[in-house]
Specification:
six-stranded mixed β-sheet, binds zinc ion, Alpha-Beta Plaits
Length: 410
Amino acid sequence: MRGISEKRMERELEELGGFGRDGSGGITRLSYSPSYVEAALWLIGRFRELGLKVFCDGIGNIFGVLPGEGDSIFLSGSHLDTVKSGGVFDGAAGIIVAMEAVRIVKEQGITPHSNTVVAAFVEEEGASFQAALVGSAYLSGRLTDEKMTSLIDDDGRNIGDVARDFCDRISPYLDGFYPLGIPSRAVEVHIEQGARLDRSGMDFCIPPAIVGTSMTEVEMTGEMNHAGTTPMDIRRDPFRGTVEVASRLNGHVKKFPGAVGTIGRVILDPNVANVVPGKVTFSLDIRGPVGEDLKKLIDLVIADCHCVAEEMDLGVRIKGGHSEPPTDLDPILRKRISEAMDKRGWSWEEFPSGAGHDAINLALICPTAMIFVPSKGGRSHCPEEWTETASLAKAAQVLADLIVDEKGVK
Ligand SMILES: [Zn+2]
């Protein structure tokens, strides 16, 4: 592959992965932490070495910019933070790939048509401020300065203040505040974090959508009683109700392609071996790639909760939740990506992303697409996370082809 250096990419991933290395063998690089500052300074150094202009914004996102001939802006990148004891590739891979793509475009003496931006988003994982996708939300305008004051870390500091300290720390090495506006197009390269590509042997996935998510909490109440003296036929056992809902949930989910449903947390009250519980609280996490399907599925499951409660003489309360609609990724950009892969003779398939990504926020402001590369064994958010450098090099080539191909794109 002309220009792309797998060795260089491997070395850079290793160097970046060295920031936040913890005792578990994994990486804990929480946003704004000392290891995050080190990683940011390292990245700024790489950007400088590449001859890019380097900027940050009010939340601490970092941008390396290769000026283009035109006014349009092509953005690619991912997040620089990790979960606790995460892996080397989640987020970092998308930044290293974008940087390599820009590097080979530049090394070949090409001035791209679009201003090309390598972005490193902060606080995607939500490990420090209990809100995910924060950096990209700021870029999209979804997170206002005002809302920032309500995001508080464990030390009671709001994200605006923490971000300001971080920006002060890195500003001597920057060209200033990010001067460009909203991107014209954005492509986020990310590890799949699932096992589908690893199983299919395909090179890439071009996800058509990122699934929508609905989180609800359900409380079922019955009658607490003695496990030995209460006959089965007069029990009002909310755990039996919970099991029935879980079983019906499985049946409903199968009717909607790509949808998944999980009861991941169940709290019995009391949680005692010889007592029929009086109350059960359980979580309901439902996800799907099609907005209408997702709504129908949630309605079906909630209706079941009421139905089961009535059949078993239980009380039921649906406690409000949080929901995020699915994100459709841009069909034109996806087509350009698939054509670039076809030209190189690399295989790809389409399936929705089951995880949330910064692309959700980017899609609010500009045509956005994603490229997934295989995750070995589908492992992610753990030290064992692994993606072959060859896959990342291919992704960098596709991205470089897209950057060169920006000319003539309206
Ligand atoms: Zn990620």
